């Protein structure tokens, strides 16, 4: 089973999002070259690693006209307990590069920790480099989150990503 299909299954089960995967071009193994970066500083009730580089990628969704940047700390083939963060900005920001804020600018951040979904209460994503398929998507992010289960609060700051831009339509939310 492709890793992206596992990603879709995890998100659908844990966050009650309707997600579809539209490509058979998903990566066969997560970041084999270890050149991906998806890290952040956390505070509040979030425990565990702050490095979600193990399985990370960027993909443009043509049906939604959105760009998704996904990071996870485990291979999604290991089971349903994945910690992941999905950053979404509207459009394909080849130019101009810039900063998107949650809410007003159509930017969303989705956090799942040990299968518990967290809702964004605020945040931003800045794209500093956006290359063609096979190139890189780079930038920074931060956000505030609240657990949908127990109301626990999490703050993520100093987020940095440098991920491969995979084929379009690998991720469609």
Q: In one word, what is the shape?
A: globular
**CATH topology (level 3) name:** Lipocalin
Q: Provide the CATH architecture.
A: Beta Barrel
- How many β-strand runs? 9
Helix tally equals 1
N-to-C series of helices and strands = HEEEEEEEEE
How would you characterize this protein structure?
With 173 residues, the chain is mainly beta. It has one domain: Lipocalin, CATH 2.40.128. The protein has one helix and nine strands; from the N terminus they run αβββββββββ. Strands 1, 2, 3, 4, 5, 6, 7, 8 and 9 form a nine-stranded antiparallel beta sheet that branches. The two termini are 20 Å apart. The model is unreliable at 1-34 (pLDDT under 50).
Helix-strand blueprint:
Elements: H1 3-15, E1 37-44, E2 55-61, E3 66-72, E4 84-90, E5 98-101, E6 108-113, E7 116-130, E8 136-147, E9 153-164
Antiparallel strand pairs: 1-9, 2-3, 3-4, 4-6, 5-7, 6-7, 7-8, 8-9
